[in-house]
Amino acid sequence: xxxxxxxxTLERLKGIRALGASQIRPLGIEADRLxxxxxxxxxxxxxxxxxxxxxxxxxxxGSGTQSEERAGSIGSSRSTLCLAEEMSYWDRGVAVSFPGxxxxxxxxxxxxxxxxxxxxxxxxxxPDRARWGSFAMTExxxxxxxxxxxxxxxxxxxxxxxxxxxxxxxxxxxxxxxxVWATVDSSLGREGHRAFVVEKGTPGLGDFQVERKMGLKxxxxxxxxxxxxxxxxxxxxxxxxxxxxxxxxxxxxxxFNATRPLVAxxxxxxxxxxxxxxxxxxxxxxxxxxxxxxxxxERTRRKLRSARLLCWRAAWLADHGRPNILEASxxxxxxxxxxxxxxxxxxxxxxxxxxRGDHLIEKLYRDVKAMDIVEGTGQVQRLIxxxxxxxxxxx
Length: 395
What we know:
The chain is an alpha+beta fold.
């Protein structure tokens, strides 16, 4: 496993650092103080599009076979993780609010037909404006246990009718489309899962509510409902032939195995920010002479670096087309814990200053807690790892 970062990624990291100091962190602090996401019409997003952000990883029709595309993307996951960590260092909420296909992209790339990729990812190849895509799996009664989703899908002729409720879908109300997971029969469990692209303005898609959160306020976590929502049959991702036994659930798991290291490395970015801010405060307050504080700061840095390597390992496996379920779960279990430790230590170093609610570390302390929850809780990741350790059957 090569740990070097290519020159192209290094150049992009420099750009993100400049943007982070001048715009990303100030926007994140502003959103936190105002208690609402950055509006979609904000000029920041149009500036990102002009700078080449908000694009899809899909390279368009005629780009070669699947194996050729994989060979041409070696290192792409690592690069994505490096950039995501740096953006989250400056503000993870703003990073998630960036235009782009979002978490709806992985299932479209891995499961979608060429026509579906063209229709839904095509506008993100060279976007003419700030565009968003979204992903909706979580429900009021089904979070980390995605096998328990209850949103229903019933076919009538060339139309699927969806009913149910979804929660905490990032950027859903501003998205051109949402990848919605539903079940054709809840008694089938995982075998009943299907994924649909529900386009903006589809009748029956509505009741969007942006949730109030204690942290990560710069992006919207949205709940919405599906009431007799009529979706064309051609919007069933992969088509009917794709859904052999458990194919729908496997598609969801492939998506999570791709995105869990991404979320994990975002936690590393938040942890780095908290660590740096803690060191800065300790230095200004003449606290670095205390060997106990120095020891805890060093231990925190070591845990964050170890977590980053776990994320990179999972990304390396994904880039080489190898199974990474164990490594993805290891990264997701370890990184948020290390980041929370960094933020907690920072709050201890701040002392009474942390209680004022106006220091960056206090904001990061509220931001970081969500990282142990989204994309599967730490408890679920440990269950996955334990199953792998003792070779426990999934069923």
